[in-house]
Design brief:
The complex is a heterodimer of chains A (212) and B (302). Chain A is built from eight helices and nine strands. In chain A, a hairpin with an 8-residue loop joins strand 8 and strand 9. Chain A is globular, with a radius of gyration of 23 Å. Chain B has 302 residues and is of the alpha/beta class. Helices cover 29% and strands 14% of the residues of chain B. In chain B, strand 5 and strand 6 form a beta hairpin. The radius of gyration of chain B is 24 Å and the shape is elongated. The chains are: A alpha+beta (212), B alpha/beta (302). Chains A and B meet through strand 8 of A and helix 4, strand 10 and helix 9 of B.
Chain lengths: 212, 302
């Protein structure tokens, strides 16, 4: 999914300046002179961590500490479709340890029974997992409104779309859809300046370094 | 009358001049030692705003060579000019900031800050919910975030339109550019720290010692008025990453923010994200009663 911000055409791009780094399809859709705003596609789509520790090989680094990630189809295309459980407690064979803390939602609220790789809207329309934003916005209207205006969700690239493209985070880049609340994190190190914290070590360093 | 002996007079003049020159040299000795680390070119360098293009090119070449000599890294220093029709604004959503200090960390690396002091232009305060009293805020918290009952308030230069720091500078080493950024000519600054004292947001930093940065960690993309490595004894400050933003890119602190709390853009563009925030969110500025008219806005989601 891609949104295109309408921008005033700058004089350089109005001259038809060729931009090989922008894919052709996007250049055709984008308004004259404006670079596109892409939405990042998280790697987690279509895959699930199965809770098994990654084998001790260098190629398993993609698995991280939460275990290896496998494609949904690895299991779901071989096994007959079972009805989706109403509670995580019913899962005694697979997806154990998956944390579900998302209001009163159950698996079938978003996943489609019998079509494991697709999602569905409240009215039953199917979505590919990459289109999950459409799913999220059904309930989270204010957040989606803010997102559309760049006031929710991180981004990288250019503030000035006449000079370069921008990449927006996907909802799922920051929020685990099964437990969307942002978790507590260990912050980056605090400053060690003279006015706060670690006064003892700061003054020791000052004596060593000949400060003041 | 006979004329005075010209030879005697000349002899007295020569003796007097020699003594005078020697006394002057002796009197100037402390000053010469004080500036011993300065090259003649740096000593004679004019204020940034008085430099011709050719002079500035020479200054930049000298600074690049000095960085190579002192830090062992090839860097490119550019003189980024304001973009016509652009005035920058920044907004920060306090409802989603979790206090992780990723912005401060990104600033530390982007702007070539001193590694030993872990300096950054951004200070994140852990504040009591329901209060804007900085006396009860702490910036050196070291525990998991966010904590119950707290909110997190990152503070950096507010790029005030009525900037107290600019007014107090006795040598006009700091000024407001036409895109709204308050900058410092680090080579003109005399290090009196008046500006640091005048800033109600504690946004300025003083280089007590020569910044220590390993060569491989130096950000080589530098701007004369922004992230080039500052000399010892001068004041420095956030420039909204003008070496990035004047090229159309987003500031480093915004790109690093994992919660998307930060919104940056052109205040003069009615379709920009920052204008949407100003029009649709209940924004406020810090210490509004001081009349500093910041270009940095805060808001809560309500």
């Amino acid at each position: 999914m891609t949104v295109y911000a309408l921008l005033v055409v700058d004089s350089i791009s109005a001259l038809g300046c060729n931009r090989p780094d922008v894919p052709k399809a996007r250049r055709e859709l984008a308004p004259l002179g404006a670079y596109p705003v892409d939405i990042h596609q998280p790697a987690r789509f279509g895959r699930v961590r199965i809770g098994v520790p990654a084998p001790n090989t260098s190629s398993a680094s993609a698995g991280s500490e939460k275990g290896v990630a496998v494609r949904c189809a690895t299991c779901h295309e071989l096994r007959p479709a079972a009805p989706l459980p109403a509670s995580m407690l019913e899962l005694d064979q697979f997806h154990q340890g998956l944390e579900l803390r998302h209001g009163v939602l159950g698996c079938a609220s978003c996943h489609t029974p019998g079509a494991s790789t697709t999602l569905h809207l409240a009215d039953g329309r199917r979505l590919q997992s990459g289109q999950a934003i459409e799913l999220c916005r059904q309930c989270h209207g204010p957040q989606y409104r803010d997102y559309e205006h760049g006031a929710h969700g991180g981004m990288t690239g250019y503030w000035d779309l006449s000079r370069g493209p921008r990449t927006r985070n996907h909802c799922v880049d920051c929020h685990d859809p099964h437990a969307p609340q942002i978790r507590q994190v260990i912050p980056a190190a605090p400053p060690r300046d003279r006015f706060m914290g670690e006064r003892a070590s700061a003054s020791a360093a000052a004596h060593e370094g000949g400060e003041h | 009358m006979t004329t005075p002996n010209p030879t005697r007079r000349r002899a007295l003049k020569v003796v007097g001049a020699t003594l005078g020159a020697a006394a002057f040299a002796k009197a100037m000795e402390p000053l010469r030692e004080f500036y011993s680390h300065l090259s003649l070119g740096e000593f004679l360098q004019r204020n940034y705003r008085e430099l011709s293009q050719a002079d500035l090119a020479g200054v930049i070449e000298r600074l690049e060579n000095e960085t190579k000599r002192d830090y062992g890294r090839d860097v490119t220093i550019r003189d980024h000019q304001p973009i016509e029709g652009v005035e920058y604004g920044y907004a920060l959503n306090l409802s989603v900031c979790v206090g992780c200090r990723k912005c401060a960390e990104a600033c530390h690396h982007e702007n070539n800050h001193d590694r030993r002091t872990n300096n950054s232009y951004i200070r994140v305060f852990e504040m009591d919910q329901g209060s804007l009293d900085f006396e009860n805020g702490t910036a050196d918290y070291d525990h998991v975030v966010p904590q119950e009952g707290k909110y997190y308030l990152p503070v950096q230069c507010q790029q005030c339109d009525n900037a107290p720091c600019v007014k107090v500078c006795p040598v006009q080493a700091t000024w407001k550019e036409k895109d709204g950024i308050v900058v410092v000519d680090y080579n003109w600054c005399i290090g009196c720290r008046y500006c640091e004292a005048a800033c109600p947001y504690h946004a300025r930093r003083f280089n007590w010692s020569r910044p220590e940065i390993p060569a491989e960690e130096i950000n080589p993309e530098q701007g004369y008025l922004s992230n080039r490595i500052r000399p010892q004894g001068v004041v420095e400050k956030c420039t909204f990453c003008l070496h990035r933003t004047r090229e159309g890119r987003l500031p480093a602190c915004l790109e690093a923010c994992p919660t998307g709390a930060r919104v940056f853009g052109n205040l003069l563009d009615p379709n920009s994200d920052i204008r949407w925030v100003l029009a649709n969110k209940r924004v406020f500025v810090l210490k509004e009663e001081l009349g500093t008219r910041p270009r940095f806005f805060y808001f809560f989601d309500v």
